[in-house]
Amino acid sequence: MPGFELFGKEERLEVNDVLESGVLMRYGFDAQRNGHWKAKTFEKAFAKRMQSDHCTLVSSGTSALSIALATAGIGAGDEVIMPVFTFVASFEAILAVGAIPVLVDIDRSLTLDPHAVKQAITPKTKCIMPVHMCGSMANLKALKTICETHKLILLEDACQALGGFYDGKPLGSYGDLGCFSFDYVKTITCGEGGAIITNNNTYAKHAGQYQDHGHDHIGQDRGAESHPHLGYNFRISELNAAVGVAQLRKLDQILSLQKRNYSILRKALLDINGLTFREVPESGIENYSFLSFLLPSEELTRKAHEALSKNGIDACFYWYDNKWHYIRGWEHLKNLKSLGSLSSAIKNKLLELNTADFSKSDAIMSCTLSALIKVGWSEEEMQIRANKMRSTLLNII
Ligand SMILES: *Cc1c(COP(=O)(O)O)cnc(C)c1O
After folding, report:
1. What pairs with residue 180 in β-bridges?
2. Can you give the pLDDT at residue 287?
3. If you placed Cys at 190, which of 205, 244, 257, 355 could pair as Cys (CB 3.0 to 4.6 Å)?
4. What DSSP designation does 253 have?
5. Which of 59, 60, 62 to mutate to test the pocket of ligand 1 (most atoms within 8 A of CB)?
6. Are residues 257 and 238 in the same domain?
7. SS3 of residue 248 by DSSP
8. Is a pLDDT exceeding 70 seen at residue 1?
């Protein structure tokens, strides 16, 4: 996920526009800003690119998720279903609005298992939050059907899947709301940043207000604006937005380089006996930021991971042992290590995690490796890397 690999003069020029006027804020100061509205420019271009009616650019992907939840009216006592394989941001965003994270199994798509989702639904469930991990998507059709049956919100965390498609739609635009991250290691970066997209006019209005202390953004005088509801400050600065404006123009280039390098690696690993690729749901197109594959056992997978790293193949992730992406490493969540006190509803649900059976996810994650795909690797370098990975893996399985 390599936006940072292509940081250059285009980004510097956009940032310089902001530095020259000194208007670092996305709202107001119309006379001083020399016509530069970086956050607004980004929002318009991103909404169009995502084939969505609205985009709200904010301070991070994590805040985007919290805003999306708040926007849809989700709060204290509401349950939000999320996968056990994701980034910690998923439960952080849910806890931040006072809602209850309900963690469920993944399947061989490495994303939410629709059967596990169905079993987790209670009268308190308000939202299903699939996370399109490592560039590929959840079975959105199945999840949407569940949402329609139970009148739930479908919120896509597309932070790691910008540029992918499902059923002809850009990932993030299929559900009621979609969220993106533009932190430093994502497909494109603002340094720090995030976005919420939606076709729902009310959600979009609420998102704009919530991320700016509840400001209604009506009129020319910020101080005189009214506050239709409570909000927070999750604004992005114009400096960060300016970086995003330049990065967004590079998205097609980034995606096509990722696809080229991904395809070289996939071809090299394709006929290795016992190696299978993650399942990509029908009618899904990945963004090619990772190539994830499964080996026949945990033992072989650990051996392969070690051998790859010994042979200089650095960016291969064994998420099963990772502290930030898989439930096994989330001691702080399971042990309720909150600085302040948590509601009893949240505490009770989180304590269940200590005895819950996630052996189905363990069986998948313990056998999965994900190879990061960089855009900076030339075709030749990628071929050498792919051959090295192939011979290393053939030596092991
Ligand atoms: C990066 C990421 C986030 C959070 O984004 P930040 O901008 O870093 O807050 C959320 N979900 C997933 C899946 C991510 O990879």
Report:
1. 195
2. 98
3. 244
4. H
5. 62
6. no
7. helix
8. no
Q: Which of 84, 87, 211, 325 to mutate to test the pocket of ligand 1 (most atoms within 8 A of CB)?
A: 87
**Annotation marks residue 388 as catalytic:** no
Q: How confident is the model at residue 29 (pLDDT cuts 50, 70, 90)?
A: very high
**Which residue has 């997978």 as its token pair?**
301
Which domain CATH number covers 227?
Answer: 3.40.640.10
Angstrom distance (rounded) from CA 148 to CA 254: 35
Count Cβ atoms within 10 A of the Cβ of residue 249 and give its class: 0-12 exposed, 13-18 middle, 19 or more buried.
middle
160 lines ligand 1 (CB under 6 A): yes
| Residue of 112, 157, 162, 322 best suited for mutating to test ligand 1, as the one with most atoms within 8 Å of CB | 157
Statement to judge: residues 354 and 224 lie in one domain: no
Q: Say which of 38, 126, 144, 186 is annotated catalytic.
A: 186
Residues 81, 66 share a domain: yes
Both 102 and 233 in one domain: the answer is yes
pLDDT single digits (tens) 360-372: 999 999 999 999 9
- Please work out whether the CB of residue 171 comes within 6 Å of at least one atom of ligand 1: no
The boundaries of the domain holding residue 339 are 252-394
Neighbours of 206 (CB within 10 A): 24
Bridge partners, residue 212, by sequence: 233
The label of the residue with tokens 């052996």 reads: 359
Does ligand 1 come within 6 angstroms of the Cβ of 189?
no
- CB of 61 within 6 A of ligand 1: the answer is yes
What angle do the packed helices 9-21 and 38-49 form, to 10 degrees? Answer: 140
| Last residue in a domain, options 191, 225, 250 | 250
Is 273 found in the same domain as 238?
no
Distance 159 CA to ligand 1 centre (A): 5
Cβ contact 375:252 at 8 Å = no
176, 155 contact by CB (below 8 A): yes
What are 157's strand-pairing partners? 131, 179
One domain for residues 159 and 216: yes
DSSP designation for 279: P
Q: Is 181 in the pocket of ligand 1 (CB under 6 A)?
A: yes
> Is 157 a pocket residue for ligand 1 (Cβ < 6 Å)?
yes
Domain boundary (225, 250, 275) is at 250
Residues 345 and 385 placed together within one structural domain of the fold:
yes
Distance CA 229, CA 226 (A): 9
Question: Residue 86 CA: which ligand 1 atom is closest?
Answer: 13
Co-location of 179 and 264 in the same domain: no
